[in-house]
Amino acid sequence: MSNSLPSAAVLGWFDLNERDLPWRDPDCTAWHILISEIMLQQTPVSRVIEPWRDWVRRWPVPSAMAAAPAGEVLRAWGKLGYPRRALRLHECSKVLAREHDDRVPADVETMLTLPGIGDYTARAVACFAFGQAVPVVDTNVRRVIARAEHGREHPGNPARADLADADALLPRADDGSYAQSAPRFSAALMELGALVCTARNPRCDRCPIPDCLWVRRGRPAHTGPPRKTQKFAGTDRQVRGLLLDVLRGTEDPVERARLDLAWTSDTAQRDRALDSLLVDGLVELTDDGRYCLAGESGTL
């Protein structure tokens, strides 16, 4: 890798352009930052800010969430999407309260043992909450590296090489150890991809990287396999969300007929979506055959 990213310029850009996001407040705990990272997965920042504020007020420590019923957590998740994230975070809170003194552990390997915590989330919390110099790679970072270092408009499929690329870019001291600014550089690289080096209509005139290989090559168009675009309307995901909306809107279990009204255009799809919610543990059946959110059936 050519390492065309000047860390001082990127950090200087970040100093001027860093967004004032609530989870960047110095008073935020690692638990608060973990909540933000879970919410931000595949969800725009603008949709996360208010739910995040509500969650950290309601559940300021893991034990507070652990004491809440799973259905209450799912209800609070609202329309953030991919509600299994909420259920896994609830499970994680129980482990943190029970086995980790009500705190998020600082090291990546221990975090990876927690329910619902993958490689990206563990590294992001280690970096942003504990100031550790570990490479943090999300879609934005991969795109910046693909363009600046490899001359490609879009990155390929995620791979372990992405971590090596990001690690090679972290600022180093003269002795080869990570510089003190390394954790902030990770945040700056992510911000650069979110605000300037965007997937569509990148603002190259505002970029602090003067020697971007993609720009030097004339910004060639993507030549790899067609990029997949996620649709929502008419998908099982939409139907699952509509069924959950019904259950979130009431504190009492509902009859199957009420759920059937949520999606009438394709009964087979509706049945499939409901079955998947039951399998995922997001929805439960009561003893009398009604449906409710997880933990509200009275049978667990």
What does this structure look like?
The protein has 300 residues and is mainly α. Among the domains are: 29-128, Endonuclease III, domain 1; 236-293, Arc Repressor Mutant, subunit A (Orthogonal Bundle). 50% of the residues lie in helices and 2% in strands. The chain contains 15 helices and 2 strands. The protein has a two-stranded antiparallel sheet with strand order 1-2. A hairpin with a 5-residue loop joins β1 and β2. α1 packs across α11 (182-195) and α9 (139-150) packs across α11 (182-195).
Set out the fold topology.
Elements: H1 7-17, H2 30-40, H3 45-58, H4 62-66, H5 70-77, H6 84-99, H7 108-111, H8 119-128, H9 139-150, H10 161-169, H11 182-195, H12 213-216, H13 236-248, H14 256-260, H15 267-279, E1 283-285, E2 291-293
Antiparallel strand pairs: 1-2
Helix pairs in contact: 1-11, 2-3, 2-8, 9-11, 13-15
Strand fraction: under 5%
How many DSSP-defined strands? 2
Biggest sheet descriptor: 2 strands, antiparallel
Multimeric state:
single chain
CATH topology (level 3) name of the domain at 29-128: Endonuclease III, domain 1
- Give the overall pLDDT as a whole number: 92
Tertiary shape:
globular
Poorly predicted spans: none
Give keywords.
300 residues; Endonuclease III, domain 1; two-stranded antiparallel ribbon; 15 helices; 2 strands; globular
What does this entry show, briefly?
With 300 residues, this protein is mainly α.
